[in-house]
Amino acid sequence: MLLLMLVAATTLRLCPLARAQPLCRIHTVRTGKVFHIREQVQGDHLYFSSGTTRLMKHPCKKNIALYLGRQVFLTKNSFESSLLPFSIPTSMQVGIPEVTSAHFAGSVLLLVVNQKVYVYDYEANSWNASTGVEHPVSHISGDNCCYSGNSFCMDISNSVFAYLHGDQISQANIYFSNTRGYRFQKYAQERQAELVGSLGGIFYFYSLSQVGLLLVDQRKAMFGYSDHPLNRSFGLPFDYNGTLDVLIAPGQKGILIFWFEKSLLVSRNAGQLVNPVQVREGQHILYSSISEANITIHSVAANENELAVLTQENHLYYGSLGILSSSLIKFADQNIWSKEAVLMFTDVGMLEILTPLPDSISPAFDFQKCPVNIQAILMDPQLQVDVCKVELLQGEFENKMYTIDMNSELELTALMIPRPSTSPVPLVMVSNPHSLGLQAVIYEDGHTYDGNTKHRLNISLRQQQHWGRADPNFTSSIKRPTISTITLDIANKEISCLDLKPLTALISVGCDLEKKIVIQNEISACYNGVLDPVALQDNYSYIIEREAYDPNFRGQKATEDLEVPYHYEKLGCPILVYYDTPWKPVVELWREGKFQEVVEAEYVLLEVNGLFTYTYSLTADMALCSSQPQNWTTIAKTAGDKGPFAWDRENYVSCHDPNNNAPLRWPEVPYQILGGPTENKVVFDQRNGIYIFFISIVDPYYSYCHLETTFSVYVYGAFPLPIFPPEITIVLLTGATLLSVWLAYMIPKLLHTEQGLRVKGFWVDTVSHMPALPPLSDLHPALAAAPQAPQLSACT
């Protein structure tokens, strides 16, 4: 008992001491200087133009970061070694080596130096000057997607904007690159010339699938957006005091942080609503904004869910980027500020105050680090932080990426276990409700061993247009692929829930790359013995007559025959088709090696070698077209460099679309679209042989993918074409018939004339002098016993 009392007394005495502990313990990183080898900086020393320092971390490669201040440092190990100041080779001839903006784009670092863009590949240690930027620029912007192995994720990291901050927006020169900044091209947003004000920035908000243009006018700012439905109006205006830096929080959740020395604002929906960050003490709001708190911001750091602020008054503020609101709390004071100091999150709940230190005997700088354990500080009762109400929040979809193709659905599940006697409110949100809709159901799903109730959430995701609950003026164009994130968090979550991260997944409303189309081949030419599969695999080739194909796909006869090699590995054995039966292929949809359905959507065919000995069973009039239908000829005229096979879902316009205003001028032309609402089929000419078809699904509402393939057909049963034209044959047959009738009439009549009798006598005399035939018994003994037919006397 006495021992317990001593322990309790010791604990009571330690509490005030714990509160007096510093925020962090300082240590210095000094490496590579044991032998005092004096390194020299090669090239021009870079420096940052702003009066305050910045630190940029690569959102995907956590150890790579860029420090911007009076010196610039690039680290690949989170500043765990001494570094030489970053420099640019003198061969780049940058002039004044002043950096005004920087951005990590995948495996390269982009820098704006002296109003020009330069690319540094830190993996290959190589420099390049960007091409295509013809006017001075001051800033670059972009984002990074950290889900590897996906094409649209790579597109996010490759896309970069370059612009001159403060330009009049109507005349601003904006450049866009989809090559990670190596090549730029001019970019202009719709109605940009009509806007009034200056350019505060341009950003690609992938969480909303919009390009946002920040317009600044008379100390107010607002965002304009590029695509329907947000392009019809601006976001709500907000105060723009000073030149606000714009940070895009990693994770594609649409979180933006705007800050200046006297201002700190946050948006959770890509700039549509921008609100000031509050300062709290416990559950009470001390200041509704940073400007009211009368503090001067020196450095800001943010990760996916956390926000930290270092002020010139030696104060450190911390907050969470909650799903509903953001606020900061002030930590205990400590002498941690210096002009060169910056903040950097090293992990969840782990913050670091970094300061470069010059060395009098070496050009390499050391780094002073002061790590802050946020969770340990939040346990201080003086901060009046409530205990987290949730013990567990988990889901199998966390930090994963999914694809929802046209007419597809996605089902996700999550598990929440609250603390006893608490009522946390789970909240599911999507960053792009204009394209992605959801429905969530929560129910009790048993208890833990401790007796806590388990709550299960079932989340259904589908395109917003297919839920049938949103107005068309709210939804985005269903033809356009989009991106959205889904986030599951606790609405009233305490700031102490550091380890309870929101569950986030990235959803691509677009092409499912696992899908492909296959042409059904149940009756092949090899199965019926028409063709030999062994011969087809033995460098087989066939001849197309010059009268049957056009290499330019215009239906004109070629000048010479064409020998075509047959690729059996790709095409297999051809489908067997009788020439005189209208035909269309059976198209199957497969995903991950499994059959899904027979495709009923609209598609088109084209023979890859230019064969034109086939047509279609329907005309435009018979297909009930209300406008002139497209065909391969009209597509080729507008295809440009895409080649003859350019007809796809992006340029297809249905002739049954009421919004298609092309008049039906030629109703008798063949209707070249198969599938869909019509029963159109292919009709082959009287020609046997192999056809290799390219097929493309053109229905824009079937899939976001370019579903296309090639297959072969063998047409049989056609008789050879006649040597002479049918007209000549008919004339000759008619003439021969008439001549036979005339001879049948004239010959008996001529035999009764004197000349006829003379001819008749000549033939009788000739026959009488002919040798007699032997008896039948001599010809064949078996005929000797045959009864003799009675002899008939000749009549004279």
Description of the structure:
- It is a single chain.
- The protein is mainly beta and 796 residues long.
- It is built from eleven helices and 51 strands.
- The strands form 14 sheets. A six-stranded mixed sheet has the order 25-24-29-28-27-26. A five-stranded mixed sheet has the order 3-8-9-10-11, with no helix packed on it.
- The N and C termini lie far apart (163 Å).
- It is found in: Cell projection, Cilium, Flagellum membrane.
- Belongs to the CATSPERD family.
- Its main location: membrane.
Give the neighbour order of strands across the main sheet: 25-24-29-28-27-26
Strand content: 35-45%
Q: Which structural class best describes the helix and strand composition?
A: mainly beta
Uncertain regions spanning at least 5 consecutive residues? 1-20, 779-796
Helix content: 10-25%
Question: How many H/I helical runs?
Answer: 11
Q: How many strand units?
A: 51
Rg over C-alpha atoms, rounded to the nearest angstrom? 42 Å
Largest sheet: 6 strands, mixed
Ends: how far apart? 163 Å
